[in-house]
Write a structure and sequence with these properties.
AOC barrel-like; 3-stranded antiparallel sheet
Length: 314
């Protein structure tokens, strides 16, 4: 019996040492992990109508292996000229539905100098024999890399075919987990808005959902693109003043003096430091920093796992 007691005491003491060692290691690692938050910079490119050329000989345009190509001029939000060179290869017929096609797209966006490029690739669904995705629709593809000042670019791109026939490509460039933004993020010709994920969890009480905490940094003179979220988000202004516009739906605002306010479609409200807003999945909105100082926001969200944190609107 004495031997068993001694062994228990020995292992309990060893366990305490391990626990103490773990705490010491965590105190060393935690700041580094916190510094490794992910940053995002948004870059927008637009261009006019895009008619692809069917390069596959003797095809009616609705065959497996069909190759389509397109090359046209683009412009980013700063007015810088560039080009889009793209190929589309048909890999699925009558998929996911009758008359639909699945095509693999490879899109290369050049900015100013041809050496500054962002490479986007992935699949999308196209209508039958249509040359492009349908008007007033969009496709999301991953950013696979870049060159020049976009070297190491990662993230995702939302391509939108607008109702007037023009196009918009919105690049969500993300950095790595080293605590610093990638070269691509630092050099991106954008408004400089940065979204940083501070942490996330998969709560057992909400299966299939991801709970996240975000920090937004919106420089003076910057304006967000109209968007909505794929779930619920609660945001609080911690510095500066944000002009908040509701495009459609309704937002719930709690002012720092305790006043509650419902903002409907077309409504505009100034959110000051200490104000909060509750955003639901049906709410289309955007913010603009009209003041001289940077706006900072903390936001907690719960979205379906795998969905992007924001969906831009035409």
């Amino acid at each position: 019996m004495r031997t068993i007691v001694e062994m228990r005491q020995k292992y309990l003491g060893f366990g305490f040492v391990l626990l103490l060692l773990g705490c010491l290691l965590w105190s060393t690692w935690a700041p580094a992990l916190a510094a490794g938050e992910e940053h995002e910079t948004v870059v927008t490119v637009t261009h006019g109508a895009a008619d692809t050329t069917l390069a596959s000989p003797n095809s009616d345009g609705h065959q497996l292996g069909d190759l389509r190509v397109v090359s046209l001029p683009t412009q980013d939000e700063s007015g810088q000229r560039g080009r889009l060179d793209s190929t589309l290869i048909t890999t699925g017929i009558d998929t996911p539905g009758p008359g639909d096609e699945v095509r693999i797209g490879q899109l290369v966006f050049s900015f100013g100098s041809a050496g500054d490029q962002i490479y986007v690739g992935g699949t999308a669904v196209y209508p039958g024999k249509g040359s492009t995705i349908a008007p007033e629709s969009s496709a999301i593809r991953p950013i696979l890399g870049g060159a020049g000042k976009y070297q190491g670019a990662t993230g995702w791109c939302q391509t939108e075919h607008l109702a007037d026939g023009s196009w918009r490509h919105i690049f969500h460039l993300t950095g790595g987990t080293t605590g610093q933004e990638s070269q691509a993020t630092q050099a991106a010709p954008s408004t400089g808005i940065i979204r940083s994920e501070l942490g996330n969890a998969l709560p057992a009480t909400a299966p299939g959902q991801t709970l996240s905490l975000w920090h937004y940094s919106i420089p003076a003179g910057s304006k967000l693109i109209p968007h909505k979220h794929p779930g619920w988000q609660v945001a609080r202004i911690i510095a500066g003043q944000l002009q908040y516009t509701v495009v459609s739906g309704e937002a719930s605002v709690l002012h720092n003096d305790g006043r509650k306010e419902q903002i409907g479609a077309g409504g505009v409200v100034m959110l000051n430091t200490g104000d909060s807003v509750v955003e639901n999945p049906a709410l289309e909105h955007f913010g603009a920093n009209l003041g001289p100082a940077e706006v900072e926001i903390y936001a907690a969200s719960i979205f379906e796992t795998g969905l992007p944190p924001a969906i831009t609107m035409p």
